[in-house]
Amino acid sequence: MNSDNGQNLCKHVPTKIDNNSELMTESEVIRFLRIPEISNSKDYHNVIEHLKRVRGLPRIHICRKALYPKKAISGWVEKEIDAGK
């Protein structure tokens, strides 16, 4: 039996995710939502935190890291558009 406690389980996981990934990091969501173009905030992390708390920005947590499903973010944007009518 392997005694490395699962440390080698991720050795074949790519370190770079392509732009078509179904799960986005916070930095990718910031670019996807074009936050730098529309926000005067110096810390875009604060903008994302606000969207999570106040507007229900969808995310999942894996290994204590938030990841953002691209389809859920797109659906959330559509819902936000409809709510603004």
Describe this structure in words.
The longest helix has 14 residues, at 70-83. Strand 2 and strand 3 form a beta hairpin. This protein is an alpha+beta fold and 85 residues long. A 3-stranded antiparallel β-sheet has the order 1-3-2. The chain has helices spanning 26-32, 35-38, 44-55, 70-83; strands at residues 23-24, 60-62, 65-69. The radius of gyration is 16 Å and the shape is globular. The protein has 4 helices and 3 strands, in the order βαααββα. The chain has one domain. The model has no long low-confidence stretch (mean pLDDT 84). 44% of the residues lie in helices and 12% in strands.
Present the secondary structure layout:
Elements: E1 23-24, H1 26-32, H2 35-38, H3 44-55, E2 60-62, E3 65-69, H4 70-83
Antiparallel strand pairs: 1-3, 2-3
